[in-house]
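TL;DR need structure tokens for one chain.
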Amino acid sequence: MLHRAAAILEAAGECAALHRQRSLPHRPPVIPLVARMADQNTSGTPAMTEREASRLDKFKQLLAGPNTDLEELRKLSWSGIPRQVRPITWKLLSGYLPANAERRESVLQRKRQEYFGFIQQYYDSRNDEHHQDTYRQIHIDIPRTNPLIPLFQQASVQEIFERILFIWAIRHPASGYVQGINDLVTPFFVVYVFEYIEEEVENFDVSSLQEEALRNIEADSFWCMSKLLDGIQDNYTFAQPGIQRKVKALEELVSRIDESVHRHMQQYEVEYLQFAFRWMNNLLMRELPLRCTIRLWDTYQAEPEGFSHFHLYVCAAFLVRWRKEILEERDFQGLMILLQNLPTMHWGNEEVSVLLAEAYRLKFAFADAPNHYKR
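>> reply
TL;DR here they are.
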């Protein structure tokens, strides 16, 4: 717990930067996924501070041993993972790679072959009558995924996403494909592209990669997305009961931690489901720049039940972060425009660190017991 307490203290020092950021005036709807993805832990190679270099060394030492101590790796990763070691760290934390270093290469080869076996076995069936609706919906949704980032508009990238999502859908008939799942491939894809390139990723032409590298990125993204979805699949089964429960839990939690915000929503008849459904369905990916999602997921993969349980506290901290702006809105329409277009375009690691520290404080205060949400 000490590592998280340290992270909280460190983040508290960053609060000033967060509070300086003012809400933007009303503006047309924007999905802030693009902004600049360059940031010290996401892409590009700016000079590292002494502290960053020291953290990178700790990761490298931990990863260099014959058996990686996953608990230590989680502790180190909670406060963010350096870009250079993020691909292997994510694969270890997700359970895709074994802790034993000698076994890793054979596991990777076997899993990559298994994925492309699924492609051979199933992908031709996408035009069959009982699969064509699924494939058609995926085909429609892919170009809408991160529409402002050129990387994701490349035909070869869209084909990779179509294969990943179609194979996942037909191997998980209880839920099948649901809109929102398409977003969840992108962080894995971007992080695993970084195994092969040094430059900025937004405008990177994937056709310049060797075919084997692209195949590896595709298979690794599939398996890690699958691991994530295994933990939150009831978000996507019929009627999406997991999301309904989480939105209700968010409402109860906010009513405890900030009664003024909660009552303000009630006064203007804003239902939490109207804005927070997307927060749960897309894991806040539509509310944050992609670089922030990647940093957020460092912690989600380090935190027990990060995507399923800790995410609730992050959403509560995120909502209350905008308390001043929320309380200034005096009608339903104004509140909905604000809540669906929160001004996070310029957020980076500092803001995410503060958000995570506050979420951890809430989680600790409410002792992980669902009945504590309630009055």
